[in-house]
């Protein structure tokens, strides 16, 4: 008798497996070890994109894409090299659940108003003078600002200023694509007209941790823009005390009317790592996309050292050991799919117990410079 498990290679089994394929049927006995891994083995890879490359390609794209020619937005997405570049699964995926992109708008350009069920957020990297108009509110963006455009809200962009402006987009595009619930609608005109004063919601919440009494009951996005000054102040206050051993000093952007993440399916953090700080290694089932807002250092992901500096982006996939080292005072903006994992009861976390909680470096990532 064949040993248990080896029967998969027996001819009658192989024949049967092939036979049922024609009826669009599949054998679980052949699939279960791959379908249900003993622990996460994500297809997405740890990867790092240099800002010098992203900026160069965005500037080149200004020759390729103009609002007249392309209609939509000039955004270039970060495609995870471990995932399929083409449809259907893995397309436009930075992690298995999230899409991230860099977007450039030139003075005088507009990106048309539209709405979709995908939840979106932005983090402003460079330039000033452009606005996004969300549900009739023009929000002028400045470096370090965080903006959220949850599911179903009208949004478009315009740029009356004088220099190119670049920001990061993060959306739950792969998740929605996979779940099959997508809807998209262009606005009847190119850009929605203002309906409230400019920067209305940021002014209503200028004080930080107090809310207008009318916002006592939950709203989708009562605050459209989180100004860098406020986030910075919060981190300054927090960093007078002991840092978290895994995350340093980190704050999460929240919806002030319900205390949940600012964007319903995507958590967003700003993290301060003082010069010389070395976090301990841990891993968790959610995956993260990091953008280096300020500073330089490196992150060790599953033993591989990823050096980073201002502007770079990198991915920490699901269940990957990771620890950060700041070589200068550093600020890392990051997004992650924790709210999605939590909804499915999938969030798990583990601290590295060996070697005092630090990984051994086994390799170094060589970024593509372009
Ligand atoms: O700026 O509204 O990168 O709708 C992808 C989809 C940006 C945007 C993206 C979008 C936008």
TrEMBL record:
<dbReference type="InterPro" id="IPR047183">
    <property type="entry name" value="GDO-like"/>
</dbReference>
<dbReference type="GO" id="GO:0051213">
    <property type="term" value="F:dioxygenase activity"/>
</dbReference>
<feature type="domain" description="Cupin type-2">
    <location>
        <begin position="103"/>
        <end position="169"/>
    </location>
</feature>
<protein>
    <submittedName>
        <fullName>Cupin</fullName>
    </submittedName>
</protein>
<dbReference type="InterPro" id="IPR013096">
    <property type="entry name" value="Cupin_2"/>
</dbReference>
<dbReference type="InterPro" id="IPR014710">
    <property type="entry name" value="RmlC-like_jellyroll"/>
</dbReference>
<keyword id="KW-0560">Oxidoreductase</keyword>
<keyword id="KW-0223">Dioxygenase</keyword>
<feature type="domain" description="Cupin type-2">
    <location>
        <begin position="270"/>
        <end position="329"/>
    </location>
</feature>
<dbReference type="Pfam" id="PF07883">
    <property type="entry name" value="Cupin_2"/>
</dbReference>
<dbReference type="InterPro" id="IPR011051">
    <property type="entry name" value="RmlC_Cupin_sf"/>
</dbReference>
């Amino acid at each position: 008798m064949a040993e248990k498990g080896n029967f998969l290679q027996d001819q009658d089994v192989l024949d049967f497996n092939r036979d049922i394929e024609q009826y669009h049927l599949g054998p679980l006995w052949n699939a279960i070890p791959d379908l249900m891994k003993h622990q996460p083995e994500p297809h997405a890879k740890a990867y790092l994109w240099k800002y010098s490359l992203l900026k160069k390609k965005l500037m080149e794209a200004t020759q390729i894409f103009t609002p007249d020619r392309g209609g939509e937005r000039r955004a270039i997405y970060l495609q995870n090299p471990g995932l399929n570049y083409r449809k259907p699964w893995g397309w436009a995926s930075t992690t298995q659940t999230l899409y991230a992109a860099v977007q450039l708008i030139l003075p005088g350009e507009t990106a048309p108003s539209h709405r979709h069920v995908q939840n979106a957020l932005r983090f402003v990297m460079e330039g000033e003078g452009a606005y996004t108009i969300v549900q009739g509110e023009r929000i002028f963006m400045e470096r370090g600002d965080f903006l959220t455009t949850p599911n179903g809200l009208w949004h478009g962009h315009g740029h009356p200023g004088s220099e190119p402006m670049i920001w990061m987009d993060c959306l739950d595009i792969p998740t929605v694509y996979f779940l099959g619930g997508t809807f998209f609608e262009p606005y009847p005109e190119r850009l929605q007209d203002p309906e409230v004063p400019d920067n209305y919601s940021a002014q209503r919440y200028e004080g930080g941790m107090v809310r207008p009494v009318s916002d006592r009951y939950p709203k989708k996005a009562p605050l459209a823009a989180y100004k860098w000054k406020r986030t910075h102040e919060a981190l300054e206050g927090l960093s007078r005390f002991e840092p978290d051993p895994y995350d340093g000093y980190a704050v999460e952007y929240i919806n002030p009317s319900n205390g949940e993440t600012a964007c319903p399916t995507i958590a967003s953090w700003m993290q301060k790592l003082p010069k010389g700080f070395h976090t301990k290694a841990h891993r968790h089932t959610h995956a993260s996309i990091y953008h280096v807002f300020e500073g330089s250092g490196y992150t060790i992901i599953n033993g591989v050292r990823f050096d980073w500096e201002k502007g770079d982006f990198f991915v920490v996939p699901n269940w990957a050991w990771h620890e950060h080292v700041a070589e200068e005072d550093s600020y890392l903006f990051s997004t992650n799919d924790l709210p999605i994992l939590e909804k499915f009861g999938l969030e798990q976390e583990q601290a590295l117990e060996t070697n005092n909680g630090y990984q051994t470096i086994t390799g170094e990532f060589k970024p593509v410079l372009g």
